[in-house]
Amino acid sequence: MRRYKHALKTTDFRRLWLGATVSTWGDSMTWIALTWIVISGPGGAGRLGILAVCYTAPVALGGLAAGVVLDRFDKRTVLITDSLLRAAVVSSIPIALALGAMPSWLPFVVAGTHGLLKMVPLAGFPAAIPQLVTDDDLDAANALENLSYGVASAIGPACAGVLVAHIGAANVLLIDSASFLVFAATAAVVRRPMRPRLANGPADGPAAGEPGAGARRRKPSLRLLYRDRIIVATTVSFMAFNIAEGMLLVTAPWLADNHLPDGPAALGLLMSAMAVGELVGAVAAGLCAPRRSHVRAIGIVQGVAALAFLTLLASPRQVLVAAGFFAIGLLSAPMTVWAQSLRMRRIPPALHGRAFAGLRTLMQATPAIGSALVTPLLVGDRLAIATVIMVAVGSIPALYLIFTRADAAQAESRTSVAH
């Protein structure tokens, strides 16, 4: 725990981390609220699949823009602006309902806007971490970021499952809107400006006209990433695993509505179980780094996590299905922590904004494929076929990471980055 305490001694990191935790908590409730608004109306699973695609597909477009913005402007300003904008968008549904005239398309617009802006905090927070903590604190800080996500995501869905039944889905969206305002406030009190980093230079280099300003080097190209076999392999593997998770995004509310006894509470239980697993996995990953190959360790945990999708076939046994969701979260968190630290050490600082936005865009865009793929299968009640596809898509790419000569690839890619 000393490593976590040392990272949290950095006041600005602690403030941003707390704000991100609150915002993620609100976000995890929003998906439950949006799905229940849509699934309670006409269209059922078909409209639910469309909602999931709206929620995930725009990530590809928004992520490309987010990287450029984060490398050009102060990350603190970008995070504040994003939070205020999303607070306004999410609150549009409860406001429209209060006025008695919510159009049927509004939940899909809110989901699409959320997806479009999703990469701003997902890339902005980790891109800011190297500017807020020392290199020795990177693993602990990255684990804390995943810990933040795990804690918030564990509490949020469970709260939403209860709150939707008692105060309505629209009021849950109001809570999420307030959580964005909290993140904006905590980002505003971060004292250290998070300006774009210089190539091989400090986070806050000289401004134009100051001594040393003319010594700036040109920013390195993103081509460095394509030449790094480790970054390419782990990114492709994560993209495949996220296709399986995109299928799960639709399958979970479908199970809750059709095969599990407790309805929205069951959906909250499943999503919270996965988030609790992520929380435990993030803590373990921050305390125990792989002794040898990070790449092989990532492949092993991904392969085992993919097998956990088989527990979907245990429905309507709610506890067994929840245990499978827990296992998926438990094993996916170390994948994220170890890969993120690997990228931070291998990618030049001047590329952090564009690199994290670009890589996370690729990884976060693929759930839409899974959501679109699984929807017709669930409409036809073909859960077994959907489960087999999830296992195959999630596990096959992991075999490359397990059996590839990771050490040789690592040495080769380091040389290419250095050049």
Automatic annotation (TrEMBL):
Keyword DNA-binding carried by entry: no
GO CC terms, sorted: plasma membrane
TM region(s), chain numbering: 16-39, 45-71, 83-106, 172-190, 230-255, 267-288, 295-314, 320-339, 359-378, 384-403
InterPro entries xrefs: MFS_trans_sf (IPR036259), TM_effector (IPR010290)
Keywords: Cell membrane, Membrane, Transmembrane, Transmembrane helix, Transport
Membrane topology: Multi-pass membrane protein
Primary location group: membrane
Subcellular location: Cell membrane
Pfam families: MFS_3
Superkingdom of this protein's organism: Bacteria
CDD domains: MFS_MefA_like
Database matches in PANTHER family: INTEGRAL MEMBRANE EFFLUX PROTEIN-RELATED, STAPHYLOFERRIN A TRANSPORTER
Name recorded for this polypeptide: MFS transporter
Organism: Phytoactinopolyspora halotolerans
